[in-house]
């Protein structure tokens, strides 16, 4: 279209008629700003004015709502006034918007990605720092990490994994308040931003997310429930930053994970030190295997009937160069959460078999050694064959080995666990259920499990003195084990009266400080000789 120096239309082509939604004869000779008063002061208005005043070309792109179209207008000056060329740039614009969306969102779930998350957080932090922001209420960041998601992916395939992530994102959006914000910041990591909240409200919300997760997801025809670990960080007094908030929430999430998963933890300063220690431990563990710093101690087990030794439990120790002799509580969760988890199994089996052989050579007969395995160690591929292979290499009978597993490692995948236990039994390896009574203790699975011995948890033994009920539980467990054809051993037995009561209850054997503390290999051999 062309416009003269007094802003009257002098020319319009067909496309301009369509864009301006008016026929040519209705516009020619008329004043543009009187026909389109809404456009006064718009971007178009400014470039036309500018081109008319300076003679320089102008360019402006804008959304034009009546036609739901993006236009690019370019204005040129000439002797009679100005001419404007319009171009429909809707497709280009949508493409650019799509690119922007893709750069800031996660394609799988449609949630904002890490970049967008940091941006939104920075914005919220700046807003909270500005005057007039309500005090008392604050900003909370929740860092959510799905537990064992890698295993789910490995077991069921990536299609199922993707479906689960999408399902989780959908559930998150469904429970979020409108001005809250959710992002996917990594494979199985999500971040929520809660505004105007308090620590306890944020914690309550995190627990709601966890219970929501426990409801099974339908993915590719399977029903799978997830669990997660959630860390919470609250905005602190200025100066605080989005990155600092995120990293505090991340630290708290790690603490939640290491205190057993399916947990919520709020950040506090002590966690940072704990994290640094964990990192240092992780590094040290690498060295420890190479430098032979791990060793096994053996805690004797004796029959209650006559006090004769029936074997020992192998317990892991770490002779740390700076921190001295460490028990598993100081490092086991870090180790089991590292690539060394499976290496430990081979090391454990080889070391136990070497000791058995060395004792035998020096004339000490040890009937049986129990080893502790974590859930993942138990469910790792071909355990029975691996044990058999190592035992044969050391000329040790599989019947001299007893694998201790805990209830919670069984329930995570009861089918698989049952078949592993059956395979162990098949090749003559014994199995024990550790810490019995402290976990799920579901009778329905106990009946099906091929287990030789129930280890009565030390909490019942310890409670015995002051609790009638604990004593009833012990009798119950012993009766149950008998009817299922299992033996019983009580652990943590520290005094004679406990031993006597256990004997009365019909328990087969005991382990605990009363008999002996865990001993190093030589001391254990001496113990066996004396007995
Ligand atoms: P657990 O299997 O329940 O082992 C028994 C723990 O109770 C041992 O702690 C032992 O020293 C302690 N204990 C023994 N008698 C008594 C007593 O009379 N009173 C009290 N209060 N405690 C007693 P430890 O050696 O520190 O081991 C802790 C846990 O670490 C073990 O608990 C076991 O779950 C795990 N663990 C130990 N060695 C290994 C290993 O080689 N592999 C794996 N995966 N876990 C291990
Ligand atoms: Ca044990
Ligand atoms: Ca135990």
TrEMBL record:
Q: Which Pfam families match?
A: EAL, GGDEF, PAS_4
- UniProt-listed InterPro entries: Biofilm_reg_signaling, EAL_dom, EAL_sf, GGDEF_dom, Nucleotide_cyclase, PAS, PAS-like_dom_sf, PAS_4
Ranges where the GGDEF domain occurs: 137-269
Annotated EAL domain ranges read 278-531
- List the PROSITE patterns: EAL, GGDEF
Q: Which domain of life is it from?
A: Bacteria
Q: Which residues form a coiled coil?
A: none
Against NCBIfam families, the record matches this protein to:
GGDEF
Query: What's the name of the protein?
Result: Signaling protein
Give the source species. Answer: Paraburkholderia nemoris
């Amino acid at each position: 279209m062309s416009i003269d120096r007094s802003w009257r239309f002098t020319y319009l082509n067909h496309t301009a008629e369509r864009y301006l939604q008016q026929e040519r004869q209705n516009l020619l000779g008329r004043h543009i700003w009187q026909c389109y008063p809404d456009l006064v002061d718009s971007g178009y208005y400014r470039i036309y004015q500018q081109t008319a005043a300076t003679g320089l070309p102008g360019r402006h792109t804008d959304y034009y709502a009546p036609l739901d179209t993006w236009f690019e207008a370019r204005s040129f000056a000439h002797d009679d006034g100005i001419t404007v060329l319009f171009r429909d740039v809707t497709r280009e614009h949508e493409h650019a918007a799509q690119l922007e969306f893709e750069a800031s969102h996660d394609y799988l779930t449609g949630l904002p990605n890490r970049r967008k998350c940091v941006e939104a957080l920075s914005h919220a932090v700046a807003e909270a720092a500005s005057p007039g922001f309500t005090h008392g209420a604050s900003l909370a960041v929740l860092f959510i990490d799905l537990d064992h998601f890698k295993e789910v992916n490995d077991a069921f395939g990536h299609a199922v994994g993707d479906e689960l992530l999408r399902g989780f994102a959908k559930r998150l959006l469904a429970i979020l308040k409108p001005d809250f914000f959710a992002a996917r910041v990594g494979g199985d990591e999500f971040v929520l931003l809660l505004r105007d909240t308090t620590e306890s409200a944020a914690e309550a919300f995190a627990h709601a997310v966890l219970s929501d997760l426990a409801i099974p997801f339908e993915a590719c025809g399977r029903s799978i429930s997830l669990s997660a670990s959630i860390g919470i960080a609250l905005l602190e007094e200025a100066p605080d930053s989005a990155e600092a908030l995120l990293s505090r929430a991340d630290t708290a999430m790690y603490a939640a994970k290491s205190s057993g998963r399916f947990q919520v933890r709020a950040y506090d300063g002590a966690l940072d030190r704990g994290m640094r220690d964990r990192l240092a431990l992780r590094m040290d563990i690498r060295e420890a295997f190479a430098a032979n710093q791990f060793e096994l101690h053996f805690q004797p087990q004796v029959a209650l009937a006559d006090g004769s030794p029936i074997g020992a439990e192998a317990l892991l120790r770490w002779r740390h160069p700076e921190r001295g002799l460490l028990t598993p509580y100081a490092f086991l969760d870090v180790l089991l959460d590292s690539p060394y988890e499976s290496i430990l199994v081979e090391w454990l089996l080889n070391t136990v078999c070497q000791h058995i052989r060395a004792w035998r050579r020096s004339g000490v007969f040890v009937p049986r050694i129990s080893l502790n395995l974590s859930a993942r160690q138990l469910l790792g591929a071909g355990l029975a064959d691996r044990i058999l292979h190592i035992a044969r290499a050391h000329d040790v009978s599989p019947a001299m080995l007893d694998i201790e597993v805990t209830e919670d490692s069984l329930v995570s995948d009861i089918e698989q666990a049952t078949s592993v236990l059956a395979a162990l039994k098949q090749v003559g390896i014994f199995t024990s259920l550790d810490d019995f009574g402290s976990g799920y203790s579901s009778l329905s699975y106990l009946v099906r499990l091929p287990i030789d011995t129930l280890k009565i948890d030390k909490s019942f033994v310890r409670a015995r003195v002051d609790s009638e009920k604990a004593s009833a539980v012990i009798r119950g467990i012993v009766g149950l084990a008998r009817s299922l054809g299992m033996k019983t051993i009580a652990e943590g037995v520290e005094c004679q009266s406990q031993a006597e009561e256990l004997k009365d209850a019909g328990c087969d054997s005991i382990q605990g400080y009363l008999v002996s503390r865990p001993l190093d290999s030589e001391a254990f051999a001496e113990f066996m000789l004396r007995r």
